[in-house]
Amino acid sequence: EVKLVESGGGLVQPGGSLRLSCAASGFTFSSYWMHWVRQAPGKGLVWVSRINSDGTTTTYADSVKGRFTISRDNAKNTLYLQLNSLRAEDTAVYYCARVLMGFCNGGSCHRWFDPWGQGTLVTVSS
Amino acid sequence: QTVVTQEPSLSVSPGGTVTLTCGLSSGSVSTTHYPSWYQQTPGQAPRTLIYAANIRSSGVPDRFSGSILGNKAALTITGAQADDESDYYCVLYLVGGIPWVFGGGTKLTVL
């Protein structure tokens, strides 16, 4: 079974740090781009960050650039998100997700998120 | 910054048909945006419904279908059931800037 399990969330004070983990199983983790998506309480999904299969390329949403760092350990089948300088507006459930590619046409391949982990809640509050 | 637009809320009668749309604040949605759709019930992780604009994910009932309608991506539910009452999100892949942008979601009520 393909599965993603996040951990590491919790309550942290503004300005604090946290490291989230996403343990992958049931697929060849090292072959896929991985992403983090977050959802503030009562709000919609927001893309946060992505990393390529070997960890050499990363991209961030403007709202977290310079504060969050995505990384991966392919030997441990684990994705990470280091959250620094946390703000109240970072309070959210953080989901990790794999991106699949297929249905290619002329060198352009469709991409979609699947599966998603169950999420881990980060609460930034004093 | 490009915004992905969705209806904030829609309602459908049991057995009825409803279409949710996913648009761009500037320009038209096409297959090059790799539109996909996700269903989320309260407290649960998103579930993949549709990808590549019109391909149903494994296990998704065939009452769910995806398409490009005019200048938007669309998710149609034909023969809605009570357990289709959920939040639905689309996401588009954009070249330049933020690569992935989710719509604000549509809260679907079945009544």
SSE layout:
The complex is a heterodimer of chains A (126) and B (111).
Chain A: E1 3-7, E2 10-12, E3 18-25, E4 34-39, E5 45-51, E6 58-60, E7 68-73, E8 78-83, E9 92-105, E10 108-116, E11 120-124
Parallel strand pairs in A: 2-11
Antiparallel strand pairs in A: 1-3, 3-8, 4-5, 4-9, 5-6, 7-8, 9-10, 9-11
Chain B: E1 4-5, E2 9-12, E3 17-24, E4 36-40, E5 47-51, E6 55-56, E7 64-69, E8 72-78, E9 87-93, E10 100-102, E11 106-110
Parallel strand pairs in B: 2-11
Antiparallel strand pairs in B: 1-3, 3-8, 4-5, 4-9, 5-6, 7-8, 9-10, 9-11
Largest pleated sheet of chain B: 7 strands, mixed
Task: Write down the Rg of chain A.
Answer: 15 Å
- What percentage of amino acids of chain A are in beta strands? over 45%
Rounded mean pLDDT score of chain B? 96
Q: Mind summarizing the main beta sheet of chain A?
A: 7 strands, mixed
Structural class of chain B: mainly beta
Greatest interface (CB-CB under 8 A), with counts per chain: A-B, 26 and 27 residues
Query: Considering DSSP H and I runs of 4 or more, what fraction of the residues of chain B is helical?
Result: under 10%
Uncertain spans of chain B, ≥5 residues at pLDDT below 50? none
From the alpha carbons, calculate the radius of gyration of chain B and give it in angstroms. Answer: 13 Å
